[in-house]
Specification:
- This protein has helices spanning 15-25, 60-73, 84-92, 94-97, 108-115, 117-126, 137-140, 142-148, 172-186, 242-255, 288-292, 297-305, 325-334, 364-376, 380-386, and strands spanning 5-9, 29-34, 47-52, 78-81, 134-135, 153-157, 189-193, 201-208, 214-226, 232-238, 259-268, 273-280, 321-323, 353-355.
- It folds into 3 domains: 5-103, Rossmann fold (3-Layer(aba) Sandwich), CATH 3.40.50.20; 133-193, 2-Layer Sandwich (Dna Ligase, domain 1); 201-357, ATP-grasp fold, B domain (D-amino Acid Aminotransferase, Chain A, domain 1, 2-Layer Sandwich), CATH 3.30.470.20.
- With 388 residues, the chain is α/β, with parallel strands linked by helices.
Length: 388
């Protein structure tokens, strides 16, 4: 009998919810794993069994050993992973994982071309994809960069997520100070020209098969994000911009990406050109909007892992909205546009509107989110990040 059992690692992360629901609705038995007993994935009604492992933050070896133990003792047809660091670790050890199960991630060398944002920028520029002017301290030194750029600028860690470590120096002195501070916490950084945030931000999700053929895609914008100065989306809407999809395909093929690539763009209001900001080498929170629009990326990744022929899924519904209410509330209190924003903050119900976590059909994850968030507020570092 065919084994239709899968494991989702990183069940504390929001992306785990759409993976879990997608595969469960395809008739699979979905198991979830996390280092937290109270987490969104564990509280989903679509999960049949739960596994605990030590946090990767306490040591990569213990985390990996427990994952290997789980998948070697159980029979999983595929392993999915959510979250920045778990994705990094399991991709790095893909060969070990695939002794027991399939995992739909690219090889590690390809993965690192996207995780290291400075490498991504260089490859994109070489392939003709528009990017912000970028400067690399390891090549010219931060002192020289501080004298040649126009302010304000953006300083970014080469590897981070959720806008962590991003700062906006407005003078040479601020840049030198920020570089020392950010690099001491997050490691190597690069500097980019500042693109005004009045330009719309977009996400292009593109799935390529082993022959680098485009099999599915979906594009959506980010009308709101938190922090309002630049961060993760709180509202998304599916839209049509063929030029952005074409740019995303071009850079992913240049990199040799196999699987799901998440490309972030911003429309530069000064020249009306969309420019690549980064490629996320993991399944991101907002792909639920793609599923609502008719592109079931988790199931397509499952088929890719099995080596099956993928159907072409290049048509998706437009004007589908996804909201992350828990984060959008923080946006409301921080943004001066709170009463002028479109869509209106007080729009809570609609046939083309869904929430990232809150669901009447699966209410458990919202409860878990509230419980885990309440606990997180007792952690100073986590509290400062959420209230940034």
């Amino acid at each position: 009998m065919e084994n239709r059992r899968v494991l989702v690692v990183g069940a504390e992360e929001n992306p785990s919810l759409c993976i879990i629901e997608s595969l469960a609705r395809q008739g699979m038995e979905v198991c979830a794993a996390s280092h937290k007993r109270v987490c969104v994935g564990f509280f989903s009604r679509f999960v049949s069994r739960r596994f605990l492992y030590p946090s990767w933050a306490l040591g990569e070896e213990a985390f990996l050993a427990r994952i290997i133990e789980i998948i070697s003792r159980q029979r999983f047809e595929a392993v999915f992973v959510a979250g920045e660091q778990p994705s990094f670790i399991l991709c790095k050890h893909k060969k070990e994982i695939e002794r027991y199960s399939k995992i739909p991630t690219p090889d590690f060398a390809t993965y690192m071309k996207c995780r290291d944002k400075s490498v991504t920028m260089k490859l994109a520029a070489a392939s003709g994809v528009p990017v912000p002017r970028s400067y690399f301290p390891e090549e010219t030194g931060i002192d020289q960069i501080s004298r040649q750029v126009e302010y304000p600028v953006v300083i970014k860690p080469n590897s981070s997520n959720g806008a962590r470590g991003i700062e906006y120096p407005s003078s040479a002195g601020e840049l030198l100070e920020a570089y020392q501070r950010v690099s001491s916490i997050y490691g190597p950084c690069h500097v980019q020209e500042y693109i005004p945030h009045s330009g719309m931000q977009y996400k292009a999700e593109v799935l390529l098969d082993g022959s680098l053929k485009v099999k599915a895609w979906c594009l959506y914008n980010k009308p709101r994000y938190y922090p309002p100065t630049g961060g993760s989306s709180t509202v998304n809407c599916t839209v049509e911009r063929q030029d952005i999809l074409d740019y995303a395909v071009r850079i992913l093929k240049q990199i040799g990406w196999v699987g799901l690539g998440d490309c972030d763009f911003i429309l530069d209001p000064r020249d009306n050109i969309p420019k690549l900001m980064e490629i996320n080498p993991r399944i991101t929170r907002s792909i639920k909007i793609c599923m609502l629009a008719g592109v079931d990326f988790p199931f397509l990744l499952y088929k890719l892992a099995r080596g099956e022929e993928l159907p072409d899924t290049l048509i998706y519904k437009k004007d589908i909205y996804l909201r992350y209410l828990f984060s959008d509330i923080f946006w409301f209190f921080k943004s001066p546009e709170r009463f002028r924003a479109k869509p209106n903050f007080f729009w809570f119900f609609g046939k083309n509107l869904r929430d990232e976590v809150i669901s009447f059909k699966d209410p458990g994850p919202a409860l878990a989110y509230l419980l885990s968030s309440a606990a997180a507020l007792f952690n100073k570092k986590e509290r400062e990040f959420r209230l940034r």
